[in-house]
Amino acid sequence: MWINISDIKQHLYCERIPYYIRIVGIKPNTTYSMHIGESFQKYLDLNTIKKLLKQQGEFIEDGKLIDNFCIKSTKLGIKGSIDCLFISNKKVIPIEIKFSKYPLMYKLQLVGYITLLKSSYDNVSYGYFIYKHSGKIIKINKYIPTQLDIINLNLAIKQIKKNFKSMVRPKPTNNIEKCFFCEYKNFCNDII
């Protein structure tokens, strides 16, 4: 069974979410936060992304931007769809678009995409987050994965595979506040 990079992001929020989506087959309802994030992603066109990359000193004239770039690695057993990918002869840069500043789960999502890209390209070493800061201010941050990120990514993948293989509902998150914003809270009758 393939592990989606989105499974990793969801797993870091709560281990039960990938279980509900992939094992039980329950599709998530769109939450307000998800709707806002999708709207923000549609708001950013490729020209705006190019402009933001140039502001970071990236030379992008010799390459192209690809929206929703899908990639998978049979060797790693993971796949995903990157929000935007810059590709040239010199470098490959994944770009993730988020509505808010990135917590750990988003960082590992980007690290997962970098890892996936490295299985097909030699010139991948970092990625970017583009996010809405406050009001209409759009920020862009370069992110270079650390060794700890790689370890955490591999641990998450290993745990997800274990959870999928067992087909048993995982334990809930330790942070009960997450449950109030979760699209699966109605299925966790042992929490709230």
How would you characterize the overall build of this protein?
- Helices cover 41% and strands 21% of the residues.
- The chain contains 7 helices and 6 strands.
- Strands 1, 2, 3, 4, 5 and 6 form a 6-stranded mixed β-sheet that branches.
- Helix 1 packs across helix 6 and helix 5 packs across helix 6.
- The model has no long low-confidence stretch (mean pLDDT 84).
Summarize the structure.
With 192 residues, the protein is of the alpha/beta class. The protein contains seven helices and six strands; from the N terminus they run E-H-H-H-H-E-E-E-H-E-E-H-H.
Layout: helices, strands, pairs:
Elements: E1 3-4, H1 5-13, H2 16-24, H3 32-43, H4 46-55, E2 64-73, E3 78-87, E4 92-98, H5 104-118, E5 127-132, E6 138-143, H6 147-166, H7 177-180
Parallel strand pairs: 1-3, 4-5
Antiparallel strand pairs: 2-3, 3-4, 5-6
Figure out the total of helices: 7
Q: What fold name stands as the CATH topology?
A: Lambda Exonuclease, Chain A
Give the termini distance in whole angstroms: 31 Å
Please report the first level of CATH classification, the CATH class. Answer: Alpha Beta
Contiguous uncertain segments of 5+ residues: none
Q: Report Rg.
A: 17 Å
Shape: globular
Strand content: 15-25%
Estimated structural class? alpha/beta
Largest sheet: 6 strands, mixed
Q: Report the average pLDDT across residues.
A: 84
CATH architecture label name = Alpha-Beta Complex
Order of helices and strands: EHHHHEEEHEEHH
Strand segment tally = 6
- Count the domains: 1
User: Helicity, in percent?
Assistant: 40-55%
